[in-house]
Design a protein that fits this description.
Number of domains: 2
Mean pLDDT: 85
Shape: elongated
CATH architecture of the largest domain: Sandwich
Structural class: mainly beta
Helix content: under 10%
Number of helices: 4
Number of strands: 22
Strand content: 35-45%
CATH class of the largest domain: Mainly Beta
Length: 340
């Protein structure tokens, strides 16, 4: 019995000592890891001057796996170059990166993963020729893994108008002069967070200040391309237009075209002069998601359109609408019933 007590006492003595106090067991040396940005978003070329793949600055954050996801270390780069951090070998971490963050965002203020994921971002953060990007992953490192790439994706999505063709079914309308005068998105939702898109419930409960181009009114600083393009019957306009917007999660089932403002789906709208009338042709894009491109390959004008951008769909347009993700290339066809 005495010998058992002696063994237990020795065991308790060992367990009360830190591993670094035991002779012959050195403390593990930190390893330096060279972190780089990756993912298709950083390799996109996009339209000239669009900045779709440009990285002007970025920050990386390493968090522990505790319930609070506490920050362990972080680093920043004033370009798209790599960032080196020191971490404990063999320990699994949650890692997150933010590229092209706005000047108002201070990487040094971040203390937890949940805080970072919930950081607000608004559409104007994407001005200046670079789009805000975010990504996260889980990894452990050793001395044999000195470099690692973290994929990021854009918070924004993109609406593209390809070809517009005039094919009026009514002989009278076909005889009237037709001139395309503007292209713009209507009902653009402004807010989001780094970690996730807003929900439809959040968008539906939001106020006017959370929206741009409400019901087609671009106002000051709105998104709008002015053009002056005459089209003859059977003719086409092929110069593309693109707009970077934030995801509008409202589904078609919750859409409205009421005359008084309330949250609703985003639309891509064509404004035209038909004879002596100003008319509008809208394509509705429901349940928009981040890092998606909504490409109207062809829009065929075949009817009188609406007197307002929010007018009811009367079959005046036929559209082919595709959705692209990731590298914004390689279309996945979306049902035409989702547009119009």
């Amino acid at each position: 019995m005495g010998s058992i007590a002696a063994v237990l006492a020795a065991a308790l003595l060992v367990s009360s000592c830190g591993a670094d106090s035991l002779p012959g067991i050195p403390e593990a040396e930190p390893v330096s890891v060279r972190l780089s940005l990756g993912g298709t978003a950083t390799r996109a070329s996009g339209e000239a001057g669009s900045g779709e793949g440009r990285v002007a600055r970025w920050a990386v954050f390493v968090f522990d796996r505790s319930a609070s996801g506490t920050l362990v270390t972080a680093g920043t780069s004033a370009s798209d170059g790599p960032v080196t951090v020191s971490v404990a070998p063999g320990v699994e971490y949650d890692i997150a990166a933010v590229a092209n963050y706005p000047q108002s965002f201070d990487p040094a203020s971040v203390t937890s993963l949940g805080e970072l994921r919930g950081t607000a971002s608004v559409l104007p953060d994407n001005s200046g020729g670079a789009l805000v990007m975010y990504g996260s992953a889980r990894a452990a490192f050793t001395a044999s893994s000195p470099s690692w790439e973290i994929a990021v994706s854009r918070l924004a999505c993109k609406i593209v108008l390809g070809t517009v063709t005039l094919s009026m079914a009514d002989p009278y309308l076909a005889s009237q002069p037709f001139r395309l005068t503007a292209v713009f998105p209507s009902n653009v939702y402004l807010p989001g967070t780094l970690g996730a898109d807003h929900t439809a419930a959040e968008a539906l409960a939001s106020g006017e200040s959370s929206w741009m181009n409400r019901m087609g009114d671009a106002g000051s600083g709105g998104l709008r391309d002015e053009v002056d393009i005459p089209l003859n019957q059977g003719g086409s306009y092929t110069s593309p237009h693109h707009f970077h917007v934030y995801p509008n999660p409202i589904p078609s089932a919750s859409d409205t075209r009421a005359d008084s403002w309330s949250p609703r789906c985003t639309r891509l709208v064509l404004q035209a002069r038909v004879g002596d009338m100003t008319r509008y042709y809208a394509v509705t894009i429901p349940a928009m998601e981040r890092d998606h491109s909504y490409v109207i390959r062809t829009l065929t004008v075949k009817g009188p359109g609406s007197p307002t951008p929010e007018g009811a769909d009367d079959g005046s347009v036929d559209v082919v609408l595709d959705t692209e993700t990731g590298d914004w290339d390689g279309p996945v066809t979306v049902s035409e019933s989702d547009a119009g």
